[in-house]
Amino acid sequence: MAHSTLPFLFMLNGKKILLGVTAGIAAYKAATLVRLLVKKGAEIKVIMTPDAQTFVSPQTLSVLSKNKVEVDFFTPDKVWNNHVHLALWADAFVIAPCTANTLAKMATGLCDNLLMSVYLSARCKVYVAPAMDVDMYQHPTAKNNIQKIISYGNIVIPPENGELASGLHGEGRMAEPENIVSFLEKEFENHGSFKGKKVLISAGPTYEEIDPVRFIGNRSSGKMGIAIANAFAHEGADVTLVLGPTHLAPNSAVKCIRVESSNEMYANCTEAFKTSDIAIMSAAVADYKAADYSSQKIKKKEDTFQINLTKTTDILAELGKQKKQQCLVGFALETENVIEYATKKIKAKNLDFIIANSLQDKGAGFATDTNKISIIDKGDKVFDYDLKSKEEVAKDILNFTLNYLKK
Ligand SMILES: Cc1cc2nc3c(=O)[nH]c(=O)nc-3n(C[C@H](O)[C@H](O)[C@H](O)COP(=O)(O)O)c2cc1C
Question: What pLDDT shows up at residue 367?
């Protein structure tokens, strides 16, 4: 089998980018970021938080961006810096670095500086590159705030792992300016590329009832499928997400149908599939359910107890049989012979391609923030991807789908 990766076309020329700089040590990298974006032909305006000025000088960013840098609501001669105009001017608003403090304000809507008022007035996509020390980044409040701002439709450019200014090692370093630029290039390349397309995604586990209090379930959190649903919605698709039991939620642009059992998931998926252009089935549907449901709680009596199981409907295989115009994509989570098993599923279930991941890969699979996938097409060609955040993996899947549909 051939292994390869996909090329991208990049395009920032003529784009109006508002760069928000906050008071993290990584603010010095904003100068490089401005320089790289200007080199790509983008028009840049910079807004800083008052504290950010102690980390990088507004003069430097002004010279590099060839524009005035805005910090305050009013200029020194008491003229209002119209934050609404600034917000509407931009094709994209990039906040890099984004401190834990600004992240918290974005999560709650606190508006006590120019940058925050522009953020709250922005109609364009907002990209956030968090930058903080490893423990700050791991703090539950930071994690929750990141989930919150994603659910509001913002896009997080994940921080990188490495040496931090504190001398500690770990996750939290702002993405390198070069990586922020390529992230934005991919965004602009695909912008609106799924407009008019109906996309069905399934995600999460299923719960198969045994009695009123017990069920057969699995460890899926739905994170991967939710990230895919968000990514397609972000590119203009009309997305229906059929989501098994999980406390997580997609962003508000996604139509979310919450289900519990494999039967419910099957019924909702087949209905939505009829009018879909693309269907990506990432849910971890139970293979078996209890043959007999007990309407009363089963009492503890014998030392051993047996439950008869019966097969659930294979949703992916059923959709494969019903498939007409749709591009149908499956997921294969295996613990061994990943590529071999996944390849067999393509033919057996009439798929266009399959996304394989292995529970043996560190950081891949259930309930993690990261995943490592391989995509296998109908010609048995294997495309391997690195370990990435699930948001980035979702983008790779979106890009692969886009290229597949263009062929
Ligand atoms: C030397 C120094 C480095 C800092 N680095 C960071 C950082 O990398 N990330 C962060 O979230 N906060 C960092 N802080 C704390 C922020 O500067 C502080 O929370 C500030 O109020 C953030 O303001 P802003 O979000 O309005 O820009 C640092 C503070 C100091 C003194």
Answer: 63
What residue spans define the domains of the chain? 7-190, 198-293+305-406
Q: Is the CB of 99 under 6 A from ligand 1?
A: yes
Q: Point out the catalytic residue in the list 67, 81, 218, 263.
A: 218
Helix (H) or strand (E) holding 191: none
Q: Whole-angstrom Cα distance, residue 19 to residue 386?
A: 29
The answer to whether the CB of 23 is under 6 A from ligand 1 is: yes
Kindly state the helix (H) or strand (E) to which residue 155 belongs, with its residue range. Answer: strand 155-156
Tell how far the Cα of 154 is from the centroid of ligand 1, in angstroms.
21
Distance 361 CA to ligand 1 centre (A): 35
pTM for the model stands at 0.69
Residue 218 a catalytic site member: yes
pLDDT tier, 389 (very low <50, low <70, confident <90, very high otherwise): confident
Q: Which CATH class is domain 7-190?
A: alpha beta
pLDDT attached to residue 19: 98
Task: Tell how strand 382-384 and strand 374-377 pair up.
Answer: antiparallel
Q: Specify whether domain 198-293+305-406 bears CATH 3.40.50.10300.
A: yes
Q: Which residue has the tokens 């608003």?
A: 93
Residue nearest to atom 19 of ligand 1 (CA): 101
Residues 203-233 pLDDT 10s: 999 999 999 999 999 999 999 999 999 999 9
Q: Is the minimum distance from the CB of 389 to ligand 1 under 6 angstroms?
A: no
Confirm if 39 and 15 have CB atoms less than 8 A apart.
no
DSSP label at 70?
Answer: B
Rounded to an integer, the average pLDDT of 237-266 is 96
